[in-house]
Amino acid sequence: MKREFAVIGLGRFGGSICRELSAEGMDVLAIDIHEDKVKEFKNIAAHAVIADTTDENVLKEIGIRNIDHVIVAIGDDIQASILTTLMLKELGINKITVKAQNDYHEKVLNKIGADHVVHPERDMGRRIAHSIISTNILDH
Ligand code: ATP
């Protein structure tokens, strides 16, 4: 079954999510403020648009309200990430997943109602540490 996704921010993290969802046959709307990023995803995602997602009118224009699950992968610009999440929440998006840059960012995202906050570098570091420990145990 196809479900509608949007990925905002096509850096390494957002870009990778966008590629994988598309490769699995999902209907993905790829969004970035920079034209070169959007061009890169024109042939990968079902749809790709240039937009500043901190602007509520822009979000309405690109039809974000028709999307079931939005992934916010804006990392460095924490203000833009928070504003975008707030707008999506106000527009009544069903499911919002957001990449957090640090613990304070994560706290704010949880407060404003993000459904799922991810911390890829920290979580991957933890996973690798556990995998190193279990490999060591097996080796001994
Ligand atoms: P990553 O850590 O995933 O590699 P990055 O370092 O490449 O990310 P970030 O600054 O974290 O880049 O931002 C990810 C993407 O979000 C960038 O491609 C950037 O153009 C986009 N972006 C930043 N602000 C906005 C915005 N207001 N609206 C839409 N896209 C934005």
Automatic annotation (TrEMBL):
Coiled coil ranges: none
GO biological process: potassium ion transport
GO molecular function: monoatomic cation transmembrane transporter activity
Domain of life: Bacteria
RCK N-terminal domain: residues covered: 2-118
Protein name in the entry: Trk system potassium uptake protein TrkA
Species per Swiss-Prot/TrEMBL record: Gracilibacillus kekensis
